């Protein structure tokens, strides 16, 4: 296995190229892997791949300030999600989409969400993309895929807006676990890192409090 920091660097560089990456969490937590991509570089082709190999529920991680600026209230008044995943109401982009569900439409919505010039008026609610409010402090505060997505994009120096969806097993019946996730990443040439690696990387590089882009 490669040292923890290198898996993070590889994942960050892949995000900058617009590639999908795979991020796994702790076996004692969810033991799941999420496909993640930078929203600003989303394409219909990459979205189609994401939908094909995941639950098909595509979320987008954003900071609280951006969620508030887009006027996206929590999906429910009382969140009973066991991991505290902070869903907001779902959205579609108003311009450039039709039904909102196609890979092309969902990629368009992602790109617009990543565009700081877009405002609440540019999106319809409900829609087919599910924004998530990332906790301030990232994986240091909460070791979730929502926070990992945003941390990796901040390390990449990209727009703080990333798509994520959970990979399903090849039979489509269960969520994919290790070691199937490692095989999946190898088969499709995806950079793979873990939330534990990301926590270790931040600690080792003096980023426990704030993230700065890496080379």
Layout of SSEs?
Blueprint: H1 4-16, E1 21-24, E2 33-38, H2 44-53, E3 59-63, H3 64-69, E4 91-93, H4 103-114, E5 123-134, H5 145-156, E6 162-166, H6 180-188, E7 191-194, H7 195-204
Helix pairs in contact: 1-5, 1-7, 2-4
Would you mind describing this structure in some detail?
This is 3,4-dihydroxy-2-butanone 4-phosphate synthase. Pfam families: DHBP_synthase. Its cofactor is Mn(2+); Mg(2+). The chain has a single domain, classed as DHBP synthase, CATH 3.90.870. The protein has a seven-stranded mixed sheet with strand order 4-5-3-6-2-1-7, with helices on both faces. The mean pLDDT is 94. α1 crosses α5. The chain has helices at residues 4-16, 44-53, 64-69, 103-114, 145-156, 180-188, 195-204; strands spanning 21-24, 33-38, 59-63, 91-93, 123-134, 162-166, 191-194. It is built from seven helices and seven strands. It has 215 residues and is an alpha/beta fold. The two termini are 22 Å apart. β1 (21-24) and β2 (33-38) form a beta hairpin. The longest helix has 13 residues, at 4-16.
